[in-house]
């Protein structure tokens, strides 16, 4: 199954629009996953329960549980910044590595 998927992906990736969309979606998923994992790790380090974190940001505990547990989360930047601040963190941007730029940025720009 994995070989079939990889072969199909390789064929589809020859289309610049498909490659752009795939790179953009991959980058979005990777970024959100990385941020959510970092926030949850910081919450554990701070020994803060999800309910306590929710109170710190003026939200319902269920909101924080969904944010840190759901597979289909897509938080706003404002929510991320607020949760980060409650954990003593701030949101910053860092340059991509050369490999990431090749894998993500170049396909996204190929359609311009």
From TrEMBL:
<dbReference type="Pfam" id="PF01381">
    <property type="entry name" value="HTH_3"/>
</dbReference>
<feature type="domain" description="HTH cro/C1-type">
    <location>
        <begin position="39"/>
        <end position="94"/>
    </location>
</feature>
<dbReference type="GO" id="GO:0003677">
    <property type="term" value="F:DNA binding"/>
</dbReference>
<protein>
    <recommendedName>
        <fullName>HTH cro/C1-type domain-containing protein</fullName>
    </recommendedName>
</protein>
<dbReference type="InterPro" id="IPR001387">
    <property type="entry name" value="Cro/C1-type_HTH"/>
</dbReference>
<dbReference type="InterPro" id="IPR010982">
    <property type="entry name" value="Lambda_DNA-bd_dom_sf"/>
</dbReference>
